[in-house]
Write a structure and sequence with these properties.
The chain is an alpha+beta fold. 40% of the residues lie in helices and 24% in strands. The strands form four sheets. Strands 2-4-3-6-1-5 form a six-stranded mixed sheet. It is flat.
Length: 424
């Protein structure tokens, strides 16, 4: 039979195992709860992301539809938009066909012509297309003909320079461009800006005729365009800065008011000069502020010095009764040329020398900023932390250089000067 001790021990072990099993089950439940909660949060985050993406897509679709409607209204019901691979156009095509205003005309695929023909786009007059590359640069081109390979647009030299920069060449053309049909209003005003400062000098009074000759080779303009102006043997780059009534206009059969602004080089030079003038002004202002701060510090120092001198004068003991046999006569010479003389008794402390100097102004120096120096033999008496190194209790009679009845000359020497000699 089992003893009572064995039964109690078994009961305790059973209770302990039961508690451990319960705790383990609780930990598992808590772990499962945390995992389920994290999973739920991930699913909710994914769902939110999906909803946000759907909302963004809906907004994008809505914006695109609004843009199509705007273009449809602007283009009198004609709509075309597509992405085409950009390539440089052959320079001989327009010349071979004798086409005028060919400087900004592109070749497009036949499918684009079919789409526009089905929409009776010819009712809007000349064909124009808004072109934008991946860099966000844009221009407008006219139509040379619908004869490029499908999926490609052949861009004229002028469009290449507008989209890839004024120094771009055929090798610069790459990537797809967004092409959108546009019905352009007739331009009424244009503002040009030459790249070179020599433009106005070279063109002179012929500027109107030269610009008209240049524009006669184009069919449209956009703000930001680069056009090439030829005058004699010289070629100039000119940028379109402003247009009216819209940022892109047709210049076919229209009279336009034209202005020419100072060149980009001139603007850059003016900007450089303005920046240099601003820099000089800032430097002057900085020097002025520094001078004001310096003067303020000097004024504050002068006030503190005046207060110190006044306190020293008020506390300076009177000279004792005169005794030629024992009096020590000291002549103090200051760096500013001042000379001050005082009689000292042999029993006066060494620190009284500095007190007397401070009471006379010490050439604008504070205690600790100067030392007293005998010329020959040279010996230096100085402050340290505003307290004479020699204790106040040391009387002058116990200092080798101050014998009763002697006469000495002590020079006030700024502490910043070269230190040499013995110090007391």
């Amino acid at each position: 039979m089992f003893s009572k001790f064995d039964l109690d021990n078994a009961s305790k072990k059973l209770a302990q195992r039961s508690e451990e099993a319960h705790a383990k089950a609780q930990r598992k439940l808590e772990k499962d709860r945390i995992i389920a909660e994290r999973k739920k949060k991930r699913e909710e985050a994914i769902e939110r992301e999906i909803q946000e993406r759907r909302m963004a897509e809906l907004l994008q679709q809505e914006a695109e539809e609004q843009e199509r409607e705007r273009l449809r209204e602007l283009n009198q019901g004609v709509v075309f938009q597509g992405d085409l691979q950009a390539v440089p156009a052959p320079v001989t095509v327009a010349a071979e066909k004798g086409i005028k205003r060919s400087a900004d005309k592109a070749l497009l695929p036949p499918s684009v012509g079919s789409s526009l023909l089905s929409q009776d786009a010819s009712k809007n007059g000349a064909y124009f297309f808004h072109v934008e590359n991946g860099l966000g640069r844009r221009t407008c081109v006219g139509l040379l003909e619908f004869s490029s390979a499908e999926g490609f647009i052949a861009l004229p030299r002028k469009a290449v320079r507008c989209l890839w920069g004024p120094d771009a060449d055929d090798e610069s053309v790459s990537g797809t461009v967004s092409v959108t049909y546009r019905r352009l209003p007739k331009g009424t005003r244009v503002v040009f800006q030459p790249r070179s400062a020599r433009f106005q000098e070279a063109i002179g009074d012929d500027i109107r005729d030269v610009l008209e000759q240049c524009l006669s080779q184009h069919s449209c303009l956009s703000v930001g365009d680069w056009v090439t102006v030829t005058h004699g043997d010289e070629v100039f780059d000119v940028r379109v800065r402003e247009l009216e009534p819209e940022p892109s206009v047709s210049i076919i059969d229209t009279e336009m008011e034209a202005e020419v602004h100072p060149s980009i080089e001139t603007e850059e030079k003016i900007l450089q000069e303005e920046m240099e003038a601003r820099r000089r002004m800032e430097e002057r202002e900085k020097r002025r502020q520094e001078e004001e701060e310096r003067e303020s510090r000097m004024a504050h120092r002068a006030q503190q010095h005046d207060d110190m001198v006044r306190q020293k004068r008020e506390t300076l003991p009177e000279e004792g009764p005169e005794d030629p046999s024992t009096d020590i006569h000291v002549l103090f010479r200051f760096p500013n040329g001042e000379k001050h003389q005082r009689r000292f008794c042999p029993s006066d402390p060494l620190s009284l020398l500095f007190h007397a100097v401070d009471a006379k102004g010490a050439s604008g120096l504070f205690p600790g900023e100067y030392r007293l120096v005998s010329q020959y033999p040279r010996h230096v008496f100085k402050y340290q932390d505003d307290t004479p190194i020699s204790h106040e209790s040391i009387p002058l009679k116990d200092v080798e250089w101050f014998s009763p009845g002697s006469r000495l000359v002590l020079f006030l020497e700024p502490a910043s000067a070269t230190q040499d000699g013995d110090g007391s």
